[in-house]
User: What shape does this take?
Amino acid sequence: MSQTKAVAAKSKIKKSKEDRIFDAIIYTICAILILITLYPMYFIVIASISDAGLVSAGEIMFLPKGLNFKAYQQLVNYPSIWIGYRNTIFYVIVGTIVTLVVNIPASYALSRKRLYGRGLFTAFYLIPMFFTGGLIPTFLAVQQFGLMDTFWVMVVPFSVVTYYIIVGRTFFANSIPDDLWEAAQLDGCGYLGFFFRIVLPLSKAVIAVIALWAAVAQWNGYFNALIYIRNENLQPLQIALRNILISNQTMSSMLTGAAATEAQQLADLIKYAVIVVSSAPIMCMYPMVQKYFNQGVMLGSLKG
Amino acid sequence: MKKKSATPKHKQSFAAGVKESRALYLLMLPSIIIFLMFTYYPMYGVIIAFKNFTPAEGIFGSEWVGMKNFLQYFNSYQFGLTIRNTIVVSLYTILVTFPLPVVLALMCNQIRSKKFKKFFQVSTYLPHFISTVVMCGMLILFLSPSTGIISKLVGLLGFQLPNLMGSAAAFPHIYVWSEAWQHVGWDSILYIATLSSVDPSLYEAATMDGAGKWKKMLHIDVPALMPTVTIMLILRMGSVMSVGFEKVYLLQNTLNSSTSEIISTYVYKMGLISNQYSLSSAIGLFNNVINLALLLLVNAISKKLSDTSLI
Assistant: This one.
């Protein structure tokens, strides 16, 4: 007995040496991966507060140099960013509310076994995952309904998302038993009253998850605005960003010579500042709400 | 996501069934109206792919032309190009971004320190929340041959980077590896969660048998992940022909268009820039049909292999 124990202990020591090497490799790779992930984001922040000339000369790598906030001060000259910011905030708030209002009740209804014609309705919501009209027919529909270039095109037409409905349905099917309704009914509760006063308060988790998904999609999205919005006063932040970051519409193109070089350097610096200003809200919010996102991924992967 | 068939306990008449479910119908009403207007109505509108659409005559009134629009696409130079580019970008993306999250999850699972694990997870998830526009802006800034940080860092090692954004050969690599940087951490969540549900007694038994960490990972963790991995891979293969429009369009320029022109960007250009509505709809419909066929195919395979299916 004691002999086997001794052997086990011995092998444990021997193995733990191998394990230590293994651990060292794993931890090293993980540390490198964290570095690769965080460095580009860190670099953008330090570049945005450094001297423009030093940034373009490649002098800035690990610490900011020539600390200044010129780039951020310059942002005042880009009203499109602030208009975009304002519009995006409205799109996020209204869009998230609309998304919840249309998807949550529908997914609850679909989760009820007593829904008459349930198979048919499920098919109705699932079919668009497999077949869509495509870009132009959808564009023509939006045009026909008079939504081109309006606030509403950003928040209503594409608010029904089959994936959200599946996630919601799975959640409701697993956590709101049918008996609950029967009990409430005995207490004289009407069906809609039951939904609003009992089901919704029990469903904060799934509501939070879908709200976060919708808000992030709205904040980061640019496709719908590209297709359906022409009016500059309705452009969301991402379109303003595209014009500055991708199409290079900064204010340097008129100048020549040394002034042009300097202006181009400042233009690049402004790009770093723009990235910081536009991404900061989500990046700061994210660690706080991370657990909801994780929950959401799990909800989404459950088989309903 | 398997559909449960509705099996009413007792046979109801149509009227009684509708009456009993009327409150539930009311809850579905807003989403049904929106879906009918902006998703189902365009499915009908797709008939313009077989017509010569003019705005004056509308969807209904325009003249039928049969397969003319499809043939125009099939016979064009862009047909082979867009299909090839779509498949190259798509398969390359799967090849890189599918296995990496699995590896990441296996490594993350080995981290014993709770704090470090949390930090690792939060930081690798973070890039997922960067918008596509900002991501592409970062790539353009970083890869600039004269001022970009990547060029400078590579310069430290003694190499000089060419103008990668203007290189057709570099486009798939830029697209795929930036995609990996952004989403691999996020995509690992599901696998990390799967690993956290592995029965701890398996590890204890393996330790008793003298297995080291590497052996345990290979013989416990990897098999534990396999079912999830198989399903995810099969589902992922269903979307081989649908590469997202946004990022490719933003990274596209005249210099790299020979590798970056994919079906969805071509549909956009034909439709909303050249205003050839019918041709664009035909290309879109062609793509949609292929996607549907692929999806049904992988769904059937998945059903057979793992008894898991989407529909």
Observations:
- Confidence is low (pLDDT under 50) at residues 1-9 of chain B.
